Amino acid sequence: MYSIQGLSKVKEFAGHSSLHFNKKQSTIQISTNAWYIVPAVTPVMRFAGIQSEALHVTASRGPLEITQRRTALVNLTDLDECTLDPCGENAVCANTPGSYTCKCRDGYTGDGRVCTDIDECIYPHNCSVNADCINSEGSYNCLCRAGYTGDGKTCSDINECDTPTNYTCWANSKCQNTNGSYTCVCENGYSAVGKTCMDVDECSLQVTDPNITNCHPDAICSNTDGSYNCNCKDGFAGNGTVCKDIDECDPKGNYPCGPSDTSKCINTNGSYRCSCHRGYRNVDGCIDIDECRENLHNCDRLATCINKNGSFDCNCSDGYSGNGTHCTDINECSGGHDCHGAAICLNTPGSLRANAVMVSPPWVKDLVETAQDG
Question: What is one Pfam family matched by this protein (predicted)?
């Protein structure tokens, strides 16, 4: 809109008004159907910075003519309508030559005269995926959710487990961080029952699942609160997870079976057994068996059994020869004997006998010798 300085209460050039410039006659002609009120004495007017004191103003219902006598018209001074605050509450007014525009501020939408808030949160925004978008008048805010920290556009997980005051877990459990929160996990050796961690008896479960503990098969599992112990059984040595058989029969160790000349140690897995040597019997230790008294020998009936430690000997009786298990009569008459020359030597089982004889014919002597040889 344009104004002419010096006129008061002249209505805006709007509606069916027209403004015409006549440079040759130095005349401004305004055509309108409205009444214009002008002062009785027109003050100095200013056209583009050029003063003019001699103006002729005619006011009537119809064309209003203003004439400048001295100088030619160059231009008129623009009126800044934005000083009249013509736009809506949430709009920005921008003055233009002869007019103005209204534009809604950021965060609002409308024609500039009526502007309503835009809910940015229902459209794509730059809040973090771990933040909540909160709409505000003409804008919005990003607020990191619980368990996260940051400016809302960038939100980082808070590790609650780093600070004991930030979490609460029950006995025998430990804090485990999660995205935006945490959870409580029972420690090894415990199992969750509701919000309680109960001890796991690994030793009982080992019966059906041998792999649940690392105890050696030759170890004894002992349950403890939250864990267990492995101890090698008697006869084994090791840390419980590895157990090796102890060789109790090792001669470098404590020989458990008594004198080695009467017994023999036989190692077994985790133990040992004592075996008596032949000729000994285990009666709280290995004692000698009297084979002669218990008739456990193989001596000939013509031999004498002589017991000794762990065995026996068979000695043929006098007048017999052999190895003791087989004895034969010795014919003492066939060798040297002490019979008188006038006596006849008669062999008997195990011995000999001398009989005195009368002088007989030679044939009698031959008969006796034949009988002895037979």
Answer: EGF_CA
